Amino acid sequence: MFRNAAVVTAMLFANVCMAEDWPQFMGPNRDDRWSEQGLIEKFPEDGPKVLWRQPVGLGYSGPSVVNGKVYVSDYQLTSGDTTPDPGKRNHLEGTERLQCLDAKTGVPIWEYKYPCTYNISYPNGPRATPTVADGKVILLGAQGHLACLDAESGKKLWSIELTEKYNAPVPQWGYSSHPLVYENLVITLAGGQGSVVVALDATTGKEVWKGLTASEIGYAPPVLTKAANVEQLIVWDADNLNSLNPKTGQIYWTEKLKPDYGMSIMPPQINDGKLFASGIGPVGALFELDQKKPGAKRVWEGTTQRGLASVNSAPVIVDGVIYGTDCKPGIFRAVDVKTGERLWQSTDPISTDGRPANSGTAFVVKTDKHSFIMSETGHLIIADLSREGYKELSRAKILEPTSNAFNRAVVWSHPAFADKCCFARNDKEIVCVSLAE
């Protein structure tokens, strides 16, 4: 179904879902591939068919879809100003919540909620997409509330306040690292001395192992791969790119990769033995994973003239090309994997006026035929991405941009793709649109 490293992660994630589900951030294998067939190739003139809309509160976190249920988290604001300022923490009072909705109708089935005071920058709700595996839902709130719930009933099985357990400060932009389930472990970034990353027993919440110390934990979700015939957990903190044994936390290798402001955000992307990670700075690098013993060799580094510096949205790697947004000047680029050479650029996936957008955001999901792109403008785009250029086939506005960033309205939430549908949200509603041909 998937190629190269994706084949390995598909096997590692076999306990997470069936192929048609979207159980976590960026899909079954955290690589933004969708294997569904029979999909629309051009939107009708009036846009895709809207199957339902359901009100939600504030949130950057994307939805997950498993076994006919949609899981989406939000923040119910009671007081405070949400106007964002990168250098300022906003103080808000409200309630964090996880809703379970019927995937066919949008009707709420259950909810889990708790009072939560925010003291973070860009405070528009939780960041981390719920992770669904083995009948459980793992929720990580913006202030570090980690909870495991029964996926069917919403009953709380266990919960932990990461800041208290690990004596950890809340990151400037909140806890954002989408939890990872590996075998019977919940792996997440925590913080504190020797506990940048922790692995907890999925049944009890008890700590199994912890590891790494860094100046800050960063925001990037951990990812799994296999190289040198060894399963490796890749953790990118604010200082280094690290490879660990996912069962024990043993460190295999570490490579320095330090973005500005502690903003390691994108999940490192792995394809055909190559690993790419980048952030604001511009800081980025392409590594060759050693296939004889665990290790990584830096092939090239990003500069203002080479590569791309991704921030809010992870790039995808297809047939030797990296496709993604470069935060400054805020433009969509194609980059050669082997050399870092920029092949072409376009503002179309992130803008409607032809101008670059600071920290421009576009979430790309590759199918067998085309790519679906969720633009920060609220448009869903069907496009062909190739080494030769960007070819837009169709676009439709499915959401209003409701968040504020750099004095413009944006949608900064990764959608879910399942059951031949797209599930997308802003700060007011979640919508389900049909993508069936």
In CATH, what is the class? Mainly Beta
Q: Note the total helix count.
A: 2
The amount of beta strand, in percent, is: 35-45%
Shape, per Cα inertia axes: globular
Low-confidence stretches: 1-19
Tell me the distance between the termini: 21 Å
Question: What is the CATH-assigned architecture?
Answer: 7 Propeller
DSSP, total strands: 34
Mean pLDDT: 94
- Overall number of structural domains: 1
Write out the CATH superfamily name. YVTN repeat-like/Quinoprotein amine dehydrogenase
Strand order of the largest sheet: 1-34-33-32
* Largest sheet descriptor: 4 strands, antiparallel
Percent helix: under 10%
Structural class: mainly beta
Radius of gyration: 20 Å
CATH topology call: Methylamine Dehydrogenase, Chain H
Structure characterization notes:
With 437 residues, this protein is an all-beta fold. It has a single domain, classed as YVTN repeat-like/Quinoprotein amine dehydrogenase (Methylamine Dehydrogenase, Chain H), CATH 2.130.10. Helices cover 3% and strands 44% of the residues. A four-stranded antiparallel beta sheet has the order 1-34-33-32, with no helix packed on it. It has a four-stranded antiparallel beta sheet with strand order 2-3-4-5, with no helix packed on it. Strand 26 and strand 27 form a beta hairpin. The N terminus is likely disordered.
